[in-house]
Amino acid sequence: MEMNAHDFNNLFSEAQLDRIFPGDRADRFFDALLGDAEEGAYDIRLAFKSFTASQLHFDLELHQRPDKCLACNLTYGLPTVFARHPVIDVQGVVDRIDALLDGQGRCAGWRLDATREINRQLHVVPLVIDIER
Question: How much is the pTM?
């Protein structure tokens, strides 16, 4: 059976994505990177954006923390860092998304695209997952 937009929106609900990418992951990332979670400038949240016949599109949303600065120079190099960092664990995220597909497709590969500034308080790192049906 072919999945449609409603199916994907239900499958990748906010609650489900919070289980795949828990809110404390940003603190663990900053603790590993900077030695102190309090030094982090943003929280990270996984959000489902859209799908095509061959791809799923998610964003790693970087939400500015109170009294911190979400400067472009802090976020533009993140796709390379996130792709390799064991706390962010993009491959693990993709593996959990693959399990959720439950045979309706298979995650065949992924990439992180360049950081985009949505506004001063929100930047996103697009996660594109290739799927095979």
Answer: 0.93
Q: In terms of C-beta density within 10 A (0-12 exposed, 13-18 middle, 19 or more buried), how is residue 38 classed?
A: exposed
Domain limits, the chain: 5-132
Other Cβ atoms less than 10 A from the Cβ of 122: the count is: 16
Task: Report the pLDDT value the prediction gives residue 98, as an integer from 0 to 100.
Answer: 96
CA-angle at 48, arms to 89 and 88, nearest 5°: 15
Of 67, 68, 82, give the one whose Cα is nearest residue 115: 82
Looking at residue 70, its pLDDT comes to 86
With a cut of 70, list the residues of the chain below it in pLDDT.
1-2, 4-6, 72-73
Residue (of 58, 32, 47) closest to 131 by Cα position: 58
CB atoms within 10 A of CB 85: 14
Write phi, then psi, for 112 (nearest 5 degrees). Answer: -105, 125
Q: Quick check: 98 and 107 in contact, CB under 8 A?
A: yes
Q: Residue 72: enclosing H or E segment and its boundaries? A: helix 72-75
